[in-house]
């Protein structure tokens, strides 16, 4: 019998698998492809933790795979001699999130590791904050961020408040490979763990500490109050964890006319009002835009289910709404923050900002204009956190903003992950600033382009699902790596970056230099006209993402170039 079939039969026979799960597994007994998909491999553990579809099986999210990963994390903590420092656990609105959080807590308690678990759903950035505040060794957040409803995930954090560094993630993955998912996982009843104090609940006191730190990040605390009689903002948490703290922080900075989206204020892991609970998609704003038209608002803000990403649509001069992309919002926030510092004479000493290598170069132009250092890092907020930590170790420098193109932003060092709560506050403040000057965010964006030149960024995602998906993804990346293209759509490639080999190569001279970044399966192509194209496999989904960071005369010009580049690359 094939190994995957043996595993399938083992799950059917195990007393660790519930009757409902066994019934679901029995229903696929004649579907060999589905059995192979679920039982050929375990759900992989990486620096982003686990993420997958919720269903029984090794390669999926369920109580057994959550317990399995937590046992391996416990082994890392014990190996580091940090068991007494404890672990914080949070969870979002998704189906099974509370169950998975309790499962993880039960495993840690059984391993004699103290647990601090939030009493109800909380934003991801509050987990990062609480971990630092309580000086715990690690944190776990049960969330699949902005993925569709059938997904859930397991994000693991280390003592600095950032997600696990690669070396720790590798230890966890290695321990998992050595464990038996049923026989080697320690667990205890959650109720007993709670009643005996092995698990302690965190409540509103932690919220208050967190919100005080968020509010400190305001650049101009008077901005909203100065236009409070005419500033109207619509907000939606998309059924998730931002439902309470985002409105609260907006009220604290002086917003009086806040309109929420009633249907989407309902906590519901089925996300009944949206196809995908992702503020990158305009459809997520449909109901909010109707409310904005009714009340006369220029802005709609939406946060994703775990409130680490935030998206915006803003009114244009002709009365329509346009989406402000993650790249555009990051550049707008950076320009606003630095301009406000200069106008108020409060520019900090040695200011620095951080973005990822797949994020707009417009931000770098803004930093140069204001005399601020910009750092480029690999995709993932943990790398932004690493730059902050390095500055702290040196004892100088002031972090002004970190962001990535996928709608994640952070100001302040109280947390080490993207924070939609602080971002929503700053977006509201920035909107008020421009409101006082008779401008919308659309006007502000046009002014930014007028100053620095038109920029256009877009992503293309190539899904490669199924059993052969990983092999097809690897083959596509290899075809772009060796040999690397010398030109793309008639434009010479002047600089080629292979971040797995950790080299940046001048294609004219052949000279190479180190990236000075950790090894990662990412490729970048800088063209002779200044355009940049980056390719990287997703760490959480079966797809390759292509990032196009282009400049040109206007949108039509840049879109035409992108079309040509896609045809040339076959994407």
Sum up the structure in keywords.
23 strands, 19 helices, eight-stranded antiparallel beta sheet, alpha/beta
What value does the Rg take, in angstroms? 24 Å
Largest sheet: 8 strands, antiparallel
**How many helices in DSSP terms?**
19
The SS-based structural class is alpha/beta
Helix content: 25-40%
Average pLDDT for all residues: 95
Assign an overall shape.
globular
Query: Could you tell me the strand content as a percent range?
Result: 15-25%
Instruction: Tell me the distance between the termini.
Output: 40 Å
Unreliable sequence segments: none
The number of distinct β-strands equals 23
Question: What is shown here, in short?
Answer:
The chain is α/β, with parallel strands linked by helices. It contains 19 helices and 23 strands.
Mind explaining what this structure looks like?
By secondary structure, the chain is α/β, with parallel strands linked by helices. 39% of the residues lie in helices and 22% in strands. It has 19 helices and 23 strands. Strands 16, 17, 18, 19, 20, 21, 22 and 23 form an eight-stranded antiparallel sheet that branches. Strands 1-5-4-2-3-6 form a six-stranded mixed sheet, with helices on both faces. The mean pLDDT is 95.
């Amino acid at each position: 019998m094939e190994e995957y079939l043996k595993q399938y039969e083992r799950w059917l026979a195990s007393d660790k698998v519930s009757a409902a799960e066994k019934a679901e597994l029995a229903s696929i007994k004649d579907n060999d492809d589905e059995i192979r998909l679920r039982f050929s491999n375990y759900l992989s553990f990486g620096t982003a933790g686990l993420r997958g579809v919720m269903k029984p099986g090794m390669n999926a999210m369920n109580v057994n795979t959550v317990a399995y990963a937590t046992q391996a994390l416990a082994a890392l903590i014990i190996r580091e001699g940090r068991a007494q420092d404890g672990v914080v656990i949070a969870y979002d609105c998704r189906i099974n999130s509370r169950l998975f959080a309790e499962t993880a807590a039960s495993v840690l308690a059984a391993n004699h590791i103290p647990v601090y678990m939030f009493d109800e759903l909380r934003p991801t950035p509050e987990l990062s904050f609480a971990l630092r505040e309580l000086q715990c060794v690690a944190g776990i957040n049960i969330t699949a961020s902005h993925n569709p409803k059938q997904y859930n995930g397991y994000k693991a954090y280390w003592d600095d408040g950032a997600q696990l560094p690669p070396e720790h993630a590798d230890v966890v993955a290695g321990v998992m490979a050595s464990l038996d998912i049923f026989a080697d996982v320690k667990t205890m009843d959650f109720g007993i763990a709670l009643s005996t104090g092995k698990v302690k609940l965190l409540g509103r006191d932690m919220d208050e500490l967190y919100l005080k730190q968020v509010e400190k990040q305001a650049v101009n605390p008077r901005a909203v109050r100065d236009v409070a009689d005419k500033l109207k903002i619509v907000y939606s948490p998309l059924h998730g964890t931002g439902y309470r703290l985002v409105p609260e922080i907006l009220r604290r900075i002086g917003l009086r006319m806040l309109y929420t989206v009633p249907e989407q204020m309902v906590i519901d892991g089925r996300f009944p009002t949206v196809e995908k609970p992702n503020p990158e998609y305009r459809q997520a704003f449909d109901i909010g835009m109707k409310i904005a038209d009714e009340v006369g608002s220029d802005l709609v803000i939406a946060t994703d289910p775990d409130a680490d990403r935030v998206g915006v649509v803003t009114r244009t001069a002709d009365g329509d709404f346009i989406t402000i992309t993650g790249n555009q919002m990051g550049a707008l926030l950076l320009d606003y923050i630095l301009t406000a510092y200069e106008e108020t004479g409060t520019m900090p000493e040695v200011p620095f900002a951080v973005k990822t290598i797949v994020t707009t170069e417009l931000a770098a132009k803004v930093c140069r204009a204001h005399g601020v250092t910009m750092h480029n890092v690999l995709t993932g907020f943990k790398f932004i956190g690493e730059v902050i930590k390095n500055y702290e170790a040196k004892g100088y420098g002031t972090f002004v903003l970190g962001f990535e193109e996928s709608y994640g932003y952070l100001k302040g060092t109280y947390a080490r992950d993207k924070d939609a709560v602080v971002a929503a506050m700053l977006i509201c403040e920035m909107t008020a600033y421009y409101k006082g000057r008779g401008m919308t965010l659309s006007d502000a964006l046009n002014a930014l382009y007028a100053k620095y030149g038109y920029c256009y960024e877009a992503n293309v995602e190539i899904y490669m699902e199924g059993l052969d998906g990983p092999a097809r993804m690897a083959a596509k990346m290899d075809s772009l790596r060796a040999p690397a293209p010398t030109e793309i759509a008639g434009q010479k490639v002047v600089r080629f970056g292979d971040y797995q080999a950790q080299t940046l190569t001048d294609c004219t001279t052949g000279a190479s230099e180190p990236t000075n970044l950790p090894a990662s399966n990412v490729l970048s192509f800088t063209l002779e006209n200044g355009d940049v194209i980056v390719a990287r496999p997703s760490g959480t989904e079966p797809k390759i993402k292509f990032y196009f960071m282009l400049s040109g005369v206007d949108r039509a010009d840049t879109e035409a170039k992108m079309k040509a580049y896609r045809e040339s690359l076959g994407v």
